[in-house]
Design brief:
Chain lengths: 114, 114
Amino acid sequence: AQSVAQPEDQVNVAEGNPLTVKCTYSVSGNPYLFWYVQYPNRGLQFLLKYITGDNLVKGSYGFEAEFNKSQTSFHLKKPSALVSDSALYFCAVRALYGNNRLAFGKGNQVVVIP
Amino acid sequence: DTEVTQTPKHLVMGMTNKKSLKCEQHMGHRAMYWYKQKAKKPPELMFVYSYEKLSINESVPSRFSPECPNSSLLNLHLHALQPEDSALYLCASSQDSRNQETQYFGPGTRLLVL
């Protein structure tokens, strides 16, 4: 079965600094990788996904993520964090021949300090 | 447009009540999902409908009863719930249930069981 690890509980970053949220995955076969963001009292909002092709994926709100097959990682990045980026971020994975379930990581709380 | 709508936004119910949660999408998606989410935790899959047929039931107690009246609508009927069922209930939809398809989430219904 597929799984995702988000090793940090909380990421603190100063406004204007680069933001990185880490994600590693475990899956049999080719992975499909997703990042979602959840603002307080809201549903999950899709940011970006990797299916195949270019390892650098660009998404909404200036976010991007790099697929690294050898390190089984899919870290989310933003060059310059905004206070409005403070939210809960989830990495998720499905496998090409998997069980149709989207496996979520535990989530990372991002706090951008003004 | 990637909008999934859910009603009501908030619901308070007693343990003997019967209520329903509603979800709607007009994106032509043929897969729809119910998730349960506790605070600061990842969503947990409850049910998947594919082409209006129930395809996955994650061993959810029978006090939760899903219904898919047509390809745009998904209901979750609630009866005799327990206080531990209090959570955010999220609906999602995707083009179909293939693993590479993005799931788009609604804003959720926050349920409190007294």
